């Protein structure tokens, strides 16, 4: 896709960093560790992603925006040192493969005011703009509304797969993007070399930056630092050791779902994003990659659980929440040691709002991504047996 409306994109790291410095009026990026994943990502965008002209321009601008956010974050930390002193006590992490029901549980728990949670506009732009004042309208909300409209125009299927809005509870994906880290990039662009590089690294610095930004978000929300955060993103499946390094008192809700559904739905989500930025996106290539990635997530999760005390984790199956979400939430609240009675009205209100957010059903199949049930079961059948995961009805085709 060529538009002729913009200058050619560059993926030269120094050029992009210099532009961010000029835009932010500062040159303090904080921990320089982020430059390693940034370099690998930029090379992959240039050499692997096969982006069209506008896709390359958007990728470049996204990288510049993240760098500006880092610069602004450092300025907030310098001006308000109390931000980094905020405790992050006993956070609750919902950990599961993509499309395994983590969003549903996250939003149900987020409805309870005894937890803190991130909102969609905060994961899009984790750092308040200069001039932000507590109690006044946050301009990041306007940006999130515009981003949602652009996403809807670019590919309406994306919001059908993951309905959201600027004020909706959302995962901490943007806090990892701030370090140019993780699966968000792999779901947006075809960058397999970048993904494999990340898989071989210690993610602790990315989690340390995530924690700093979480403190900044809590400060900007004027949230009580005594309340635990409820958090979730599939990235944690790969990086449980790093998570525990930074959040040693974390509690975990592990979600499980039929991998035939998880793989097909993950591939569909990635495909519906990748094809926005490239005219050469290959659905079969996407399918192979997300089967591999799902298997790796499961393997890393099983290994990482060995470092977690049994009384700090609980397993929840997708189909059990489908069958009786109230019973599933009672189990979770018993695990967390909280009285659920006071949470029912808020959770019921959330459930009532779900139908208003839903659009067309998300339909997908393994076949459209060049996969068979046998291929998935060969790689993930052991996971099903280990966690008692049952088969769901056959995945519908488009």
TrEMBL record:
One Pfam family from the record: Sulfotransfer_3
GO molecular function, one term: transferase activity
InterPro entries on file: P-loop_NTPase (IPR027417), Stf3_sulfotransferase (IPR052736)
Gene3D superfamilies found in the cross-reference section: P-loop containing nucleotide triphosphate hydrolases
Keyword vocabulary terms for this entry: Transferase
Superkingdom to which the source organism belongs: Bacteria
PANTHER family named in the record: OMEGA-HYDROXY-BETA-DIHYDROMENAQUINONE-9 SULFOTRANSFERASE STF3 (PTHR36451:SF1), PAPS-DEPENDENT SULFOTRANSFERASE STF3 (PTHR36451)
Name of the protein in its database record: Sulfotransferase
UniProt source species: Aurantiacibacter zhengii
High-level lineage: Bacteria, Pseudomonadati, Pseudomonadota, Alphaproteobacteria, Sphingomonadales
């Amino acid at each position: 896709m060529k538009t002729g409306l913009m200058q050619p994109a560059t993926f030269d790291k120094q050029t992009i960093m210099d532009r961010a410095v000029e835009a932010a009026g500062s040159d303090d990026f904080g921990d320089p560790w982020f430059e390693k994943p940034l370099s690998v990502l930029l090379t992959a965008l240039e050499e692997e992603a096969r982006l069209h002209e506008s896709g390359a321009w958007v990728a470049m601008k996204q990288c510049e925006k993240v760098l500006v956010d880092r610069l602004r974050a450092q300025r907030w930390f310098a001006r308000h040192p109390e931000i980094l002193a905020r405790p992050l006590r006993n956070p609750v992490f919902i950990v599961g493969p993509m499309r395994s029901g983590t969003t549903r549980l996250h939003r149900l728990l987020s409805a309870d005011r005894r937890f803190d949670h991130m909102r969609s506009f905060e994961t899009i732009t984790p750092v308040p703009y200069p001039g932000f004042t507590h109690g006044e309208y946050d301009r990041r909300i306007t940006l999130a509304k515009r981003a949602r409209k652009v996403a809807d125009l670019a590919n309406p299927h994306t919001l059908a797969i993951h309905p959201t809005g600027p004020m909706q509870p959302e995962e901490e994906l943007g806090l990892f993007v701030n370090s140019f880290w993780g699966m968000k990039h792999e779901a947006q662009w075809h960058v397999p070399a970048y993904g494999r590089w990340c898989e071989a690294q210690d993610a602790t610095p990315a989690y340390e930056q995530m924690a700093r930004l979480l403190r900044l978000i809590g400060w900007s929300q004027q949230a009580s630092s005594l309340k635990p955060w409820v958090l979730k993103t599939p990235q944690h499946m790969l990086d449980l050791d790093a998570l525990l390094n930074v959040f040693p008192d974390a509690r975990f809700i592990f979600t499980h779902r039929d991998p035939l559904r998880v793989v097909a739905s993950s591939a569909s989500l990635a495909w519906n994003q990748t094809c926005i930025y490239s005219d050469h996106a290959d659905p079969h290539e996407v399918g192979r990659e997300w089967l591999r990635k799902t298997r790796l997530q499961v393997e890393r999760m099983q290994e990482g659980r060995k470092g977690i005390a049994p009384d700090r984790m609980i397993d929840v199956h997708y189909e059990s929440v489908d069958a009786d979400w109230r019973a599933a939430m009672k189990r979770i609240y018993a695990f967390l040691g909280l009285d659920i009675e006071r949470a029912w009205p808020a959770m019921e209100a959330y459930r009532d709002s779900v139908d208003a957010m839903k659009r067309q059903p998300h339909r997908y199949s393994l076949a459209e991504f060049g996969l068979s049930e046998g291929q998935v079961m060969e790689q993930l059948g052991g996971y099903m047996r280990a966690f008692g995961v049952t088969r769901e009805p056959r995945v519908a085709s488009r």
